[in-house]
Structures are given as structure tokens and as C-alpha cells.
Amino acid sequence: MKITRQEYARRRKALMELMEPDSIAIVASAPERLRSRDTDYPYRQDSDLHYLSGFDEPSAVLVLIPGREHGEYVVFCRERDAEREIWDGHRAGPEGACRDYGADDAFPIDDIDDILPGLIEGRERVYYAMGKDRDFDVQVMGWINAIRAKVRSGAHPPGEFLDLSHFLHDMRLFKSAAEQRIMREAGAISARAHCRAMRFCEPGVMEYQLEAEILHEFAMAGARHPAYNTIVGGGKNGCILHYIDNKDALRNGDLVLIDAGCELEYYAADITRTFPVNGRFTPEQRSLYELVLSAQQAAIDVIKPGSHWNLPHEMSVEVLTRGLVDLGLLSGSVEELIETGAYRTFYMHRVGHWLGLDVHDVGDYKIDGQWRALEPGMVMTVEPGLYIAPDNEQVAKKWRGIGIRIEDNVLVTKDGCEVLTTGVPKHPDDIEALMNS
Ligand code: GLY
Ligand code: MN
Ligand code: MN
Q1: Residue intervals in the chain for CATH 3.40.350.10
Q2: Intervals of CATH 3.90.230.10 along the chain
Q3: Measured between alpha carbons, how far is 232 from 260 in angstroms, rounded to an integer?
Q4: Is 432 labeled as catalytic in the residue annotation?
Q5: Ligand of minimum distance to the alpha carbon of 273
Q6: Which of 41, 114, 281, 327 shows the greatest Cβ crowding within 10 Å of its Cβ?
Q7: Which pLDDT tens digit goes with each residue over 51-102?
């Protein structure tokens, strides 16, 4: 279940067709990051570079030069090195970049300062991810200045700099059939991991132990890394939106909120489930839970081509606000509570985001100032939640410290949508049945 060489080639070709005449695009690999002395974080390639090449080594630069006679696709990467490869593993080397990754031409990364200015020279426009990485910005300007230094010998430096993400990120927003297959599988694996955590959970288990169950299921299914730091929040920890300490014991009578998704072949899943630690919802937990669930369903129901991006969010706000009034957590007219944003005390984030190679994936949400219309191939999350702060004295005690979110991944299809993460229950009866089976 990998993206084929042909698909990477199609992506490069599509990008080159969008580029202005007489231009060059430069894409850098992600830097390696130190975690502590002599120990790096696990390396992960930059999503843009990966999208265009599948090349997963650090210290690489990919260059696209539409119309270049001696090859349009040029890679700079680390040279083969028998000594270093004993320590750090295989390198493709420039030969491998051509042989295995389809580069027309490849050079050692150490020679980039000598070679790349010559490839830029004579081109009018340079595309790169401006302002993303300070070191890379400086490097690009260094190559440009190397050309400017030679104007008196007839060199022609480029006059325009354009943001590569404009085209590239719009391409990434629309998932191909192959990408959809991978994301469906990432969703299925992540769903199984949530089921495993539900079955394992009981009072006294530590939050990090549920995390361990989740990560185990990911890795055993071929997805070694999570797409983001796993959130396991029991009780009031579920009200902390980005809680990743995962250090407390789970208590009888509390809910636990798990937000976890695997990364499979670089593609993210992003699922949240909230369930009772002891396998039975209390009446208060159940009524809030059912409210969040109905808000999520209302949001999913409007996902189809032509709906604008903000419509699912608006649906979730309306259902949640009305429900909070019905339960006595808010008082006043629903319209006014929405208008003034009073609901934000309990629902302070948006209903979702694009999903893909990055968990908060790229792609514009507005076009010319208007919410963009949904189109087939887009993948988004739908994740309404309610969080009743433990110290909120405006509400009855029985509600305080309850945090609930329900999150699924949804693909926009030709005539509606497909939920990619149905493998884990979300109806409270089904959750109780699974936990007590
Ligand atoms: N896990 C990050 C998010 O749900 O947006
Ligand atoms: Mn999430
Ligand atoms: Mn999310």
C-alpha cells in the first residue's frame, strides 16, 4: 500500500504545469532535531518533499526545472559513505536518487552551493517555501547572491520569488485514489487501537498505559509512529485540549478522552473517543455525550460537494448551543448565545481541519475571502466537543470536570461523504457493549 513511482512523477508533472514559464522550484528536506545529547528525535521527512518524491532521507534538496533540456527533476542528497552507513544505515546516494526515485540528474548535497546557482541562473522566477525555515531562507538568498555577484560577467539573477505552497498545497488537498486507500487503512488501524484501549480500560489503569495499548496496536499493524502526540485525559484532564502528560491514574466514575491516530505511509488518521473508565456512563455523562454525538452527526450530514467549509461548524454550534440551553448549562435565546459567542465557554475550538500528510493538513479554507466549497477528494475531521471546566461555578456541580470530544475522519465523495473511521463505536450503548463484552 505505497504511493507508486508513477504517482510521484504525476505529481511533479502536475506542479510543473502550474508553474509560471521560466521558473524553478526548490524544496528542502526537514532538518534533523536533537532530543538530548547525541540522541535525535525520530526523523520524519518534510511533507512537501515527500509528496513530490517519496524520498525519506535528511540533507536533501529537490529541484524542479520545467523545460530543462538535461532533465527537469534534480535531486541533491548525501553521498554513499561506507563508514557512515555502518553507523546510520543505507543512503541512496545520487545514483540511487536517479535509479530508485526517478531523478533525471542528482548531485552530492555538499556540492549544492557550486551547482544550484548555475541551475537558477537565467530563470526569471524562483518558487520555494518562503519563511518556513530561517536557515533555508538564508541559503536560498546565498545562491541568489552568488548569481548577483556575477552580473558584470553577464549572469542573469531571477527577479521574482513566489511561494511554492500556493500550488503545492492545493494539490495536496485533493486526495487521489491511492491516497484515499492509505487513509482508509490508517483510519481502520486507528479505530482498532481505540477499541483495544476501550477493552483494556478499568479503574486504576494509568493514562500512559492506555497510550501504550494504542501505540502497540499501531505498530503491530505496520504504522510505527502516531501522527501526533497521543492525548489520554481521564476526568478533568479531558478538559485540557492538548493534554499529553498522560500521567494520572484513571478513576472509577470518570470519563476518559483519547485523541489518537496513526501515521501510515506518511498519512495521518485523527480519532477521538470519550468513554467511561468503568464501562458505564452516568446519566450526566450520557446526556452531554449524546449532545456531542448529535452535533457531530449534524455536522457530518451536511458534508457533500457544494457545502461550504464552515457549514459543518455552524451546524455543530447550533446543536450544541440548543442542547446546552435544554440541559440548563446556558440560559437565554439560542440565536443570541450564538451571536455573542457565549457557547465558547464550553466549545472553544472549531469543528475540524483538513487531514492528510499532516494532521492539520495544508490547503486554504477560504478563497477570495469566502469559505471554500467542499469538493470530492478532500478529507477533513469532524470533532465537536464540550468541556465543562472543573472550576466553573456558573453550572451545577454535577457537570463540572466533564470533557467530551468525538472525532472522525471524513472523505468528501461525488455525492456526499464517507466516514473513514467507523471501525470504533461511538454510540454510548455500543461503547458500553464493547467495554463489557
Ligand atoms: N489531534 C489534533 C486534533 O484533533 O486536531
Ligand atoms: Mn484529534
Ligand atoms: Mn483533529
Answers
A1: 5-171
A2: 174-435
A3: 8
A4: no
A5: 2
A6: 281
A7: 999 999 999 999 999 999 999 999 999 999 999 999 999 999 999 999 999 9
- DSSP string of 38-84? TEEPPP---HHHHHHH----SS-EEEE-TT-TT-SEEEEEPPP-HHH
Q: Which CATH number fits domain 5-171: 3.40.50.10310, 3.40.120.10, 3.30.300.350, 3.40.350.10?
A: 3.40.350.10
Side chain identity, residue 309 = W
Helix (H) or strand (E) holding 159, with range, is none
Q: Is 360 designated active site?
A: yes
Q: How large is the angle between the packed helices 207-220 and 177-200, nearest 10 degrees? A: 140
pLDDT of residue 307: 98
What per-residue confidence (pLDDT) applies to 89? 96
pTM given for the model: 0.97
- Residue 70 bears catalytic tag: no
Identify which of 232, 257, 274, 353 to mutate to test ligand 1's pocket (most ligand atoms within 8 A of the CB). Answer: 353
Q: Between β-strands 416-419 and 385-387, what pairing exists: parallel, antiparallel or unpaired?
A: unpaired
Residue (of 303, 271, 268) closest to 183 by Cα position: 268
**CATH (residue range 174-435):** 3.90.230.10
pLDDT tens per residue across span 161-211: 999 998 999 999 999 999 999 999 999 999 999 999 999 999 999 999 999
Ligand minimally distant from the alpha carbon of residue 381: 3
Q: Report the distance separating Cα 329 and Cα 371, nearest Å.
A: 31
Specify the pLDDT at position 1.
84
Please write the tens of the pLDDT for every residue from 37-51. 999 999 999 999 999
434 Cα: distance to centroid of ligand 3 (angstroms): 24
Beta-bridge partner residues of 24:
126
Separation in Å, CA 247 to CA 205, 207, 237, 358: 10, 6, 10, 26
CB 274 within 8 A of CB 256: yes
